[in-house]
């Protein structure tokens, strides 16, 4: 059980750390070196591969059916990632920017496909009793990986240099590769019929209530959660203090929220735990109002950000668990990916909407509006509970 948990955690840290570094950390490096926003802006779009990954997910299921599992596919992606990181380490981001960006785009594609394959792998190695805990580890590992890529790797670059930063990324992926290499994948093979796009696009037939959940549940929390960083800048916090509160303490409380959600699903069931999480989201969103209302001391901001991270990660864990429950053993990569892509699209939209509205209405109005929306969505979810 411990080895299985460490394998899941290391996989998720490894698959997100490169995106954290090349999607955000590298932007900071290039801006510091005087590159224009136009030149580095393409790096911000690396996350789009995760949204579009469902388009090629049937190929993953078909390949897994042919070779008997997902583990070999993941190992292949890890080896490719190590090779690309070695190539990147030989370049200089200042002098070889086009080549670095091209390889970063390739890494983003591999990372998105690797993540999609891992989700199918997690479905295959989990059962109804440990699926929620698997998702808690998955979301926690993803958060740790993203923060490490955007934070810790950036610190290593600042102190030691470009090659050493890439060596750090390489070492984490190598650890994940070794852990997975000795992990025994269950022998049961999915019973799909090979490449089947029609089945994937027909997944939501008869699931309109669940489709509405994927859309609605992210709006309130994402609209408010995305305001944390710009809000702290506007109230006068230093960047290093924001990084400490959001990326260190936020990660700790996010990890705790994910684990708590995993245990709640096991105790209450996913649907009931989901309703409780939506109710807790309302309180977490209202906590963000504290700095807006003038409570800008360290303790108040720490409480607000920690509460927001905890409820955000808790809800993400439960939704991921419910998506995996609805993905059959026949085409787990495709069926999870199509749900995840739609949910992620609405999350991105909600993050953008919250920031846009805050520019015109103010932070306070958006936070209170997001909390009110969570209450209304809870009423809606209760109404459609038996159809979810």
UniProtKB/TrEMBL annotation:
UniProt-annotated location(s): Membrane
Keywords annotated in UniProt: Membrane, Transmembrane, Transmembrane helix, Transport
Membrane-spanning ranges: 7-30, 42-61, 73-91, 97-122, 143-160, 166-183, 209-233, 245-265, 274-295, 301-324, 336-355, 361-382
Pfam families: MFS_1
SUPFAM superfamilies tied to this protein: MFS general substrate transporter
InterPro entries xrefs: AmpG_permease/AT-1, MFS, MFS_trans_sf
Membrane topology classification: Multi-pass membrane protein
GO molecular function, one term: transmembrane transporter activity
Main location: membrane
Gene Ontology CC entries for this record: membrane
Protein name in the entry: MFS transporter
Organism this protein belongs to: Campylobacter massiliensis
């Amino acid at each position: 059980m411990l080895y299985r948990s460490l394998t899941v955690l290391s996989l998720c840290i490894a698959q997100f750390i490169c995106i954290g570094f090349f999607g955000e950390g590298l932007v900071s490096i290039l801006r510091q070196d005087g590159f224009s926003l136009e030149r580095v802006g393409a790096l911000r779009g690396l996350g789009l591969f995760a949204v579009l990954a469902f388009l090629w997910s049937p190929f993953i299921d078909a390949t897994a059916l042919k070779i008997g599992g997902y583990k070999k596919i993941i190992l292949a992606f890890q080896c490719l990632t190590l090779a690309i990181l070695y190539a990147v380490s030989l370049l200089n981001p200042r002098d070889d920017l086009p080549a670095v960006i091209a390889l970063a785009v390739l890494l983003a594609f591999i990372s998105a496909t690797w993540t999609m394959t891992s989700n199918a792998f997690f479905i295959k190695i989990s059962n109804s009793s440990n699926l929620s805990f698997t998702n808690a580890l998955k979301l926690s590992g993803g958060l740790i990986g993203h923060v490490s890529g955007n934070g810790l790797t950036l610190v290593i670059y600042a102190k030691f240099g470009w090659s050493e930063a890439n060596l750090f990324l390489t070492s984490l992926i190598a650890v994940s590769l070794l852990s997975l290499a000795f992990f025994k994948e269950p022998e049961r093979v999915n019973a799909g019929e090979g490449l089947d796009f029609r089945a994937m696009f027909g997944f939501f037939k008869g699931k309109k209530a669940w489709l509405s959940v994927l859309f609605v549940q992210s709006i309130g929390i994402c609209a408010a959660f995305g305001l944390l960083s710009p809000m702290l800048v506007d109230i006068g916090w230093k960047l290093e203090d924001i990084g400490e509160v959001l990326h260190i303490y936020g990660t700790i409380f996010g990890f705790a929220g994910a684990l708590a959600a995993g245990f709640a699903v096991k105790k209450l069931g996913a649907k009931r735990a989901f309703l409780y999480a939506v109710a807790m989201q309302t309180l977490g969103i209202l906590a963000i109002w504290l700095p807006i209302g003038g409570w800008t001391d360290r303790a108040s901001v720490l409480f607000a950000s920690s509460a927001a991270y905890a409820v955000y990660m808790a809800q993400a864990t439960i939704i991921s668990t419910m998506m995996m429950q609805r993905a059959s053993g026949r085409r787990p990569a495709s069926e999870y990916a199509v749900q995840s892509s739609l949910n992620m699209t609405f999350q991105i939209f909600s993050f953008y909407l919250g920031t846009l509205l805050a520019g015109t209405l103010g932070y306070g109005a958006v936070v209170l509006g997001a909390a009110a929306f969570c209450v209304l969505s809870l009423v809606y979810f209760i109404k459609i509970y038996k159809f979810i």
